[in-house]
Specification:
Pfam families: Beta-barrel_RND_2 (PF25954), YknX_C (PF25989)
GO molecular function: efflux transmembrane transporter activity
Protein name: Putative efflux pump periplasmic linker ttgA
InterPro entries: Beta-barrel_RND_2 (IPR058792), RND_pump_MFP (IPR006143), YknX-like_C (IPR058637)
Largest sheet: 6 strands, antiparallel
Distance between the termini: 32 Å
Number of domains: 2
Helix content: under 10%
Family: Belongs to the membrane fusion protein (MFP) (TC 8.A.1) family.
Structural class: mainly beta
Shape: elongated
């Protein structure tokens, strides 16, 4: 998915806004041990925010799926048969749902099936709840 001329975005640990760069070279193999891909990119650096040898945090967008249903990763519970989440039904009780997951980011997991848009997914206390248990919850968007 990486191509010459594609865009990367990066920033240093001090923060600030993302800076855009353009890929001009990359290694064709991914390091199996670290799961990393080495690439080189150029960026104007007009304000001299970045110095040679400085570490930066890079973001490379592989693709955008507008209709992806994403939930926080802490709400996903791995099981032998797959994954599950707990949702709150219309009566305010916990319901267990088997889900299939897709793409994963650093904080979110895509739900491919098992949960519908608008379902209330529990993100805290998931190890203490059981199906049918009434809960009090705060809805966070």
């Amino acid at each position: 998915m990486v191509q010459l001329g594609s865009k990367i975005f990066f920033t240093n640990e001090a923060g600030g806004e993302d800076v855009e760069g353009t890929v001009y070279a990359y290694e064709p193999n991914i390091d199996a041990g670290t799961r990393t891909l080495r690439l080189r990119a150029t960026s104007p650096n007009r304000d001299r925010r970045f110095l040679p040898g400085m570490f930066v945090r890079i973001r490379y967008v592989l693709g955008i799926q507008e209709d992806a249903l994403m939930v926080p990763s802490e709400s996903i519970i791995p099981e032998l048969s797959g994954y599950k989440v707990f949702i709150v039904n219309e009566e305010g009780k916990v319901e267990e749902r088997q889900v299939s997951i897709g793409t994963r980011t650093d904080r979110y997991v895509q739900i491919v099936s098992g949960v519908n848009e608008g379902d209330l997914v529990l993100t805290t206390g998931v190890l203490q709840v059981r199906g049918g248990m009434p809960v009090n919850y705060n809805k966070i968007n």
